[in-house]
Amino acid sequence: MAKEEFSRVYPIAAYVDAGGGFLLCVYNAGPHDFYGRWLVSTKSGKSVEVSLAVPVGRTVAVRGSLGESFTPGTSPALILVTGGGRGYVVNPIVVPDISSVSCG
Predict the structure, then answer these.
(1) Which of 9, 20, 27 is nearest to 44 (CA)?
(2) What is the distance in angstroms between the CA of the first residue and the CA of the last residue of the chain?
(3) Which of the residues 16, 17, 89, 90 could staple to 98 if both were Cys, CB 3.0 to 4.6 A apart?
(4) Helix (H, G, I), strand (E, B) or coil at 70
């Protein structure tokens, strides 16, 4: 799937904090329910695998920790690798505390 198609079908809002926590808000625009795993990585190589189950028309929140500090005011990048091996870059918003952020 091309990057443009991926971002259209699965719009993602991403947030990280100074403690290494992250939140991905994944919306499924269709045409099929999505069930699978993504590898979430940083440029330094730290990564974690997340499982997703996103019905069409729904937003799902995925929380985790990458164990890497992120500094407010910077522009980090997260790399999402899908089960099919394709990589997509997402630029998260750095927040003071990830627990205060929701997808709602």
Answers:
(1) 20
(2) 27
(3) 17
(4) coil
